[in-house]
Task: structure prediction
Amino acid sequence: MARICKVLIVENDDDVRHLLDQIIEDEGYRFSSVKTGTEMHEALDKDDYDIAIIDIILPGQEDGFTLAQIARQQGCGIILVTGDYRHRERLEASGQPFLLKPFRIQQLIETVDKILAEMVAQCVRRKRSDGSFFPVRAG
Result:
């Protein structure tokens, strides 16, 4: 059974992207995956996503940090990933979830679950006038 959450994977390495696709699919989440920042922009224009898993090093002018800001503005929870440990200090200073490659599958799943729990808590605080709840989307 597919879970309600929808994940956008932004990863230019085909092997890593396919691995992430498989992990997210095995967990029952709906997902889309893209290779570039341009493709991420197109995906965000076409659909709403709850979480974006974004590689820091991508082809093009926008790095993962920039793309994370854009996705966050559209209401996505963010997980940054990289195999370049030179970014570790910046990642730690950012205060947002990140994974260093190679990471354990369980680390990714736990990080996704934590972000979803935080999003649910935000939804509870944003109650509609009819009594239902809706996700917090940056405006």
In short: The first strand starts at residue 6 and ends at 10. The helical segments are 14-26, 37-46, 64-73, 88-94, 105-125.
